[in-house]
Structures are given as C-alpha cells and as structure tokens.
Request: fold
Amino acid sequence: MHTSFRLKVLFPGFMSVLLAAAACKSPQQGVNAAEAQAQQPHTAEAHSQAIVTGADQTAAYLPYLRGKRVGMVVNPTSVIGRTLSVDSLQALGVNIVKVFGPEHGFRGDASAGVKVDDSVDPKTGIQVVSLYGKRNKPTQEDLADIDLMIFDIQDVGARFYTYTITLHRVMEACAENGIELMVLDRPNPNGFLVDGPILEPELKSGIGMNPIPISHGLTVGEFAQMVNGEGWLANGIQCKLNIVKVMNYTHDMPYTLPVAPSPNLNTQQSILLYPSICLFEGTIISQGRGTYFPFTVLGNPDLKDKYAFNFTPKGINGMSETPLHQDQACYGLDLREFDTQVFRNTGKLNLSWLMELYKAYPEKEKFFDFKQSNQIGNFDKLAGTKKLKEQIIAGATEEEIRQSWEPGLSQYKQKREKYLIYP
Reply:
C-alpha cells in the first residue's frame, strides 16, 4: 500500500448501529488508525466472515465526525444496512450540512446523461448540490461551511462509469480548499478484472479522465490513492485522505451489490457484463436501454436477417425515456444467461461481441457513427483510443488488438500494485 502522501486507513472492529450510537456519546474525539487496527481480528475466522463495507462500520468513524460540519457525496448505493447513509448518520446526530449528488442524482431518480439541478432534500431538509448539472466539481463557496467531506458511492470498476470521475473532481476541490476527504470504501464487483487499452491523453472527457484501462481493478479507496500518488490532481496537489477499509474483502471475491448502482445496471449480470458491453454505447447497436434488462442484450433493427432473438426498446421513466431504436424490434444477442465466470477465468474483456456485430451489420459506415446512433458516449472516448475502432474496421484479430494494448496495460498492472489496500 502506497503511503508517501497524507493518508489514514481505518481498520475498525465491532460494527453495529447500537455501538455507533454509543460511540457518539463517547468523549473520544477521533479514531486513531493504529488503535482501530488493533481491534481488527487477524484470525483465519475473520477472513471467512462476510464482507463489511466501510459505511457499515459506523463504530469506527462516528466519533471522528462528532463536532464537524460534514458534506457527503452520495447516491442510492450509499447505504448503512438498508438505509441511506445520509438518513442514518443524520439520525445518529451527525451534522450533515450539505449533500453532493453525482449522475442520476442523490436519490437516483434521474436517467443516464440527464442534467440534475440543485435542490433541498424534502426528507432531511439538507441542501443538495448537483455535480451533474451546471457544475461537476464543488466550488469554494460550496465547501465554505464544510469541515470534512465523505465520499460513499458504489463503483463497478469501469473507467467510463462516472462515479470515479466524480471522486477525482471532489478530491481536487477538497485539496484546493484544505478539506479532508473520508472515503467509505466498498468492494469492486469487477475487482478481479484488469484489462483494456489505457486512456490516451487526447481522449480525456467526462467518461474517461485518467490513464487507466477500461476495467481498472480498484476499489474507490484504492483509486483515490492512485490519483494522489500519481499526481493526477491539478498541479500535482494532494488530497488528505481518510479511508475506512472494507473488512474481509479480497479482489478475487465475488460480490453481489445490495443496491443497483444506477438505473440501467439493475442486475448482477448487467454489472459483470458492463465493462465489455458499454463500448456499444458509441455504436448503432442498442444495449437494451428501454427494456427492464439493459446491458444484457445487444441488437439493431437492421440485423433481422441475421438473428432470431429480438427485443423492442420503449421509453421508461427513470431509466431511458428516449432509448436508441425506440419502438423498433432489435435483433441480436441475448446475454442474460451468459456465464460471466469466463471473465474471472480468463481475466479478459469480451471483444468477440463487438467484432461479430460489426461484421454482421450491413451498413458498416454507420456502425460507429456517433451522431447517427444518438448514444451516451463517443466510441473513441469510451475505448480510450482511436486504434480500436480502426482495428475493428480493418478486421484485426483479437490477438492483434490485445497486443496493441501493450506495454501500457502491463505497466498499469505494476503501478496498480502500489496502491492496493486489499490482496
């Protein structure tokens, strides 16, 4: 684990809301990392216990929050048990002065790519600042009344998933304003997979900011360490990090998310397929937006003569109001029963679906036409390189494509080792 920058990792012991409430009444003013680590069981039994997220370990961090004005970057995945962490922590007496909401909004009621306005949360009365609207990064004014910021959002381990981009920007804002950032860490459901081309600098965008592969194999806590350690914040500034570690977790462990991370990743199957399938967002191929099983199917109306399986996208409030190929039968691949264990076994993204559907599509000049497809992302920005599109068009083999990812991918894997918190 890399520790040359300012970092504190908390290793708590017993976690329950009752203990948390008791901790709030304790005279102790903060959590010492060494003392907390001493509470952590180091027996074989501990490693066989259930995974416990950082947020669920309230007894470890509640005393540290006492007396502080707290800001929180959260969404519907930010739960303690089954309750939103904002609601839980406010009930436990934490002074939450502001909530910052990413894509999809604080309570998750906005569709993908839809801008979200600032508001006041009707349940808690807390001011909600949107980081997916008129600004994507907290301002100095936003942070003026905050002593400590908390980041607690479930990621899925793909470079183009926007929550780690939000984390990067929040880290930068905190560093610029001298505010400590506490990361309540959560497992990465694709944490076993490190694969894909490294993002090229000229393709930096809102769906890719840092030189990492498509599937980066980091938790948000580890990602935050890498951002700091590699000097990726503006002018190389450092964010003061305080990471509450996940208990009983390793990267090779299967992890089923208790809450859908976004409206269109609503099943475990879609989450595991996502790093491979999201590339289709920059093509003429539907990924099932406008169905109740998005990111598990692929199709297009023009493939009727090639495939029997079909689905028809419809407008669905809160998911996809105007999906690609709306009200048209799309023919293609049904991946709902695909054995995702293959990703774990091979350690590779699936490129064959992209290659197959490009070959099958009759009007190849339209396949990667971003304007024609009316999709969320530009293919080159999603891929992180212009080479992949060129290789698919030229008929390159998968081996040739993968070879072009080197030496960048291997170098990233070595770099990643410095920032791992978990085996």
In short: The longest helix spans residues 163-176. The chain has two domains: 7-257, 268-385.
